[in-house]
Structure formats: C-alpha cells, structure tokens
Design brief:
The chain has 475 residues and is an alpha/beta fold. The protein is built from 14 helices and ten strands. The protein has a four-stranded parallel β-sheet with strand order 2-1-3-4, covered by helices on one side. The two termini are 47 Å apart.
C-alpha cells in the first residue's frame, strides 16, 4: 500500500512540474512575441506558439530527467527550501543548455534567445513557488497530526539523544516520537522531556501494535551490532519500516566530515566546537548588536526604569549569579519584575512549580509586581542583559544562562550546554520558551552548539521578534 502511495505521489509531482514547465514556456513566448518586451533588432519575425510546442515537449522531458538526477523527486526530510531552489536552478540550467544545443540546428525555424531566458526564470520561479506552497500546506497538516510519522526510537544513549535533539529542533521533519526503548534499566524508565520511556527492547513487539507505530529508528551504539541486526530483522519480518542511525563510533554527524577516495568513503572526526575565527566573528556581531540595541532602546529602558521606581519599592536592576561558559559564574542584570525578597520565597512555593527538571517557573507567579507581569510578558526585563553582552559574559544568541542551583542538579549530558556563552535569546526561546520541558530545552541548546553558524544566529534573532511581540510561552 505504501509502495502504491509513493508512486502516486511521484507521478503527481512529475505531472505538476510538467504543467508548470509548459506554463513557463507559454509565458516566455507571450512576453517575447505579444508584449514585445525584448528590443527588436532589425527585422522582427513573429512566431506562432505552435512552433514552440516541440521545444516545450523536449524541455519538459529533459528537465524532469535532470530534476530526477538532482534528487528532487526523492523524499528528503529536513531538506531546506533554499536547497530545493538550488537544485531546481541546476536542473533548469542543464535542461535549457541542452535545448539550446539541440535547437541550434533547427533551421529555418529560429527560436528566440529571449524565450530561453524567460523560460528559465519562469521555471525557477514557478517550481520554487509550488514547492514553497507545498511546504506550507504540509506544515499546517502536520500541525494537526496529518501526514506525521509515528516513530519509536530504539536507544536513548548519546546516539539516541542526538536523534531526539534533531527532531525537537526540526519539527518540519514530520516525526512524532511515541516513545523510546532502551535496555539500560535507568534510561529505559526515565522520560526525556516529552519523549516517553517505554522500558526495554523486550517490549518492542507489543509496543508496535499498541502505539500504532509507522516506523522504527534504531539508534544503538556500534558495539551491540548483533542486537541491532536482531531488532532490524524482527521489525522487517512484521513489515515495519526500519531506519538505522549510523553511530560512527558514537560521534554525531555534525562531528564528522565525509569524503571519498575513488568511491571509498572516508570519515574524518572533528571536534564539535565554535572555532577561534568563528568565535571572533560571533563576538564582533555581539559587540555591534549590543551597542546598537542599547542606543536604540535607551529611551524605552529609561522609561521602564522610572516606572519600576514608581511601581514598587526596591532596586530597579535585579542582579543574580548565573553560570556561563565553561562553568564560569557571573552576575546577570535584569529589570526587577518581582517584589523584594522574592528569591527567599522559592522554598515556600515549590509545590506550585510548573517547570520540569531543575527549573522553577510559575505561570501566574504571585511574587510579580503589577508592572513586573507586563514587562516580563513583553520580555522588557531582559534588556539590561545587553550590558552583559558588552562585558563578554553573554552573547546575543546562546543557551539560557542557568542559576548555580540548577547546574548542581544537571545530569552529565545536560552540562554540554555550558560549552558556549549563554545568550539573551536562543533556539529554545524561539521554539516554545516556557512551554518546553527542561530536557527539550537542553536538547535544543546542544543542537545549537553542534550546528552553529552565523546564518543560524541571524535566523534566531529574526524569529525572536515575532516570538517577543506575540509573547509566546513567556511568563
């Protein structure tokens, strides 16, 4: 049944692309011969569209072949939209060049060079737009649970958690993790965020039926090869699709570079860290960004400071000790949003705690002042942290700066989030903020560390704007 659906989907994609390619040819012809957009040097030879039909047919067939070579018709979860545009442009260029070579000998019929250019532009625009619309529709459907793969993960060690991090950070992959199994007694019975621990692999057969699993992903270390093969064979015998995460000696894919020599794959291990040059670039962006932000926000910050002074007794700036990069402690600055002595009240409010793990958060915290609730919801209390950025204690983008008491409760894998400077905003803030469980926050932080780039920082900063304006998950 899945085989039939896959081929129906493939045929639908090819039919859509064929229609759009022909539409691009028609529009190109209309621009050239009807609108006369292109300057007419010398004598103008008008061509009927019917003369371009063979051109359109050959272009359609060749373009679809080139698109297939570009793997545009293969399922690729997590492939970026810009990557698709790149492959569309590649395939289109190859097809147009082929047609130009073929029609060069088509005399006396002369095909206009302008039509080639207009067709190429039209193909890239129309095909890219179609895939963008498809992505938006797919995202909406997946948000409603339609077209989502129900996945069971086998293994909750470093390899399994790396997989979970990617799924949390990329919801557009369309995976819903029903849970995980692990034969380690502690891991197999300890939930990781919203990922439910379902015991050991002995429960696998029962879970596949009870949880309506559509796919199994095996994420076990290389030294249990026999177990991996046994689980794979057990699932395949039941007709269950199986994917296996290549352990690569317990390295995540972001920690390796893959090359080949004459078809022989070579795997080069590299350290997962932001290098010296990248650190300088990130620091330069921090200094420029924080300086501009403080200049632009000087008047709003002054207004908030005056309102805090008028609203309740106590200091304007709330300072407390946080843990930064490499476990180094520093004093974080925030506008005070709670009454004086709020820190001492935590012990009496533990039963109201709504956060998971070592975090302490209450949606309607009784310690907030009247103004504090407002500035907290609008994230205005975070503005003084730009001074922490200037001092080099924080970055514009990075993991949330933890309290000392929180770090003392960390599991060993949680400590990886301390490998970079904490940030005013970060991947977890634009992915749900307080709505996320602690383990999910840590997964997103580690994913950020392993996949950092300047573009990722800019993407997070841009996404922070609507997140703050809409107050998503803020309290």
């Amino acid at each position: 049944m899945n085989f039939i659906r896959r081929h129906q989907k493939l045929l639908g994609q090819i039919a859509r692309d064929a229609a759009l390619i022909n539409a691009a040819v028609l529009v190109a012809w209309y621009f050239r011969y009807e609108l006369l957009i292109t300057p007419q040097p010398g004598e103008f030879f008008y061509q009927q569209y019917v003369n371009y039909v063979p051109y359109a047919v050959i272009l359609t067939a060749s373009a679809i072949i080139f698109f297939r070579n570009e793997r545009l018709y293969q399922p690729a979860r997590g492939r970026k939209f810009l990557d698709e545009v790149y492959h569309i442009a590649n395939g289109t260029t190859s097809a147009i060049l082929l047609i130009m070579a073929l029609t060069f000998f088509a005399q006396p019929l002369v095909f206009s060079r302008a039509v080639y250019v207009y067709t190429a532009l039209g193909m890239v625009i129309l095909l890219s737009l179609a895939r963008l619309i498809e992505r938006m529709i797919r995202a909406r459907l997946r948000a409603r649970g339609i077209g989502v793969e129900r996945v069971l993960i086998v293994g909750a060690g470093e390899v399994g958690r790396a997989l979970m991090r990617s799924i949390v950070a990329q919801p557009d992959l369309g995976y819903y993790v029903v849970g995980f199994v692990d034969d380690d007694a502690e891991r197999g019975n300890t939930d990781i965020g919203r990922f439910t621990a379902l015991g050991g692999t002995a429960n696998l057969a029962r879970l596949l039926n009870e949880l309506a699993v559509s796919e199994v992903i095996i994420a076990l270390p290389w030294n249990v090869r026999e177990k991996i093969i046994a689980i794979r064979d057990r699932c395949l015998a039941r007709g269950m699709p199986v994917r296996i995460v290549p352990d690569l000696f317990q390295l995540s894919l972001s920690a390796v570079a893959i090359d080949d020599v004459g078809g022989i794959p070579l795997v080069t291990a590299r350290e997962i860290r932001i290098g010296a040059v990248d650190s300088l670039i990130k620091r330069a962006i921090d200094l420029v960004g924080a300086t501009l932000a403080l200049i632009a926000l000087a008047i709003p910050m002054l207004a908030v400071a005056m309102l805090i002074r008028l609203d309740s007794p106590g200091p304007i700036i709330f300072s407390n000790e946080r843990v930064g990069r490499g476990g180094k402690r520093f004093i974080q600055f925030k506008f005070r949003s709670m009454r004086q002595g709020a820190e001492e009240e935590i012990a009496n409010l533990q039963e109201l705690n709504e956060a998971s793990g070592p975090l302490f958060k209450i949606k309607n915290d009784p310690r907030h002042t009247r103004l504090g609730r407002i500035i907290r919801r609008m994230s205005l209390d975070e503005l003084p942290q730009f001074f922490n950025v200037l001092r080099g204690e924080m970055s514009l983008v990075g993991p949330r700066p933890p309290l000392v008491a929180e770090v003392e409760q960390y599991q060993e894998w949680h400590k990886r989030r301390l490998e970079v400077s904490p940030g005013i905003t970060g991947l977890w803030q634009v992915s749900g903020r307080s709505e996320l469980l602690f383990d999910e926050m840590v997964m997103l932080d580690i994913y950020y560390i392993e996949n950092w780039s300047v573009l990722m920082d800019f993407w997070i900063l841009l996404k922070t704007i609507p997140t703050v304006l809409l107050a998503r998950g803020a309290y």
